[in-house]
Write a structure and sequence with these properties.
Shape: elongated
Strand content: over 45%
Order of helices and strands: EEEEEEEEEEE
Radius of gyration: 15 Å
Helix content: under 10%
Length: 123
């Protein structure tokens, strides 16, 4: 069974930094594009950043220049370095992965989500 587990969230003051991690585990054969999303209270979930297996990245305009997405393919782990945090960055952050995995003798291509980690930016 495939699992994505996020960590690294917490409470930070405006201007501070946090580093989120997302570890994928299970019968994974290959992870393609990975992404971070976030959802603030009362708002829809929004895309924060994506990274392909070849490490091409894309960022939402609201986080460009402040956040950096990266991955370690050997460890099946995704990261999000968040600097110069603002109160409007407060949200639950979710990782997302498009991956190829085994179920019994068969291969499946599916998208998985983590359970989310809370990031709160407040003085």
């Amino acid at each position: 069974q495939v699992q994505l587990v996020e960590s690294g969230g917490g409470l930070v003051q405006p201007g501070g930094s946090l580093r989120l991690s997302c570890a994928a585990s299970g019968s994974i054969l290959r992870i393609n594009t990975m992404a971070w999303y976030r959802q603030a209270p009362g708002k829809q979930r929004e895309l924060v950043a994506t990274i392909t297996r070849g490490t091409t990245t894309h960022y939402a305009d609201s986080v460009k220049g402040r956040f950096t997405i990266s991955r370690d393919n050997a460890k099946n782990t995704l990261y999000l370095q968040m600097n110069s945090l603002k109160p409007e960055d407060t949200a639950v952050y979710y990782c997302n992965a498009d991956l190829l995995h085994l179920r019994g003798s068969y291969q499946f291509q599916d998208t998985y989500w983590g359970q989310g980690t809370q990031v709160t930016v407040s003085s």
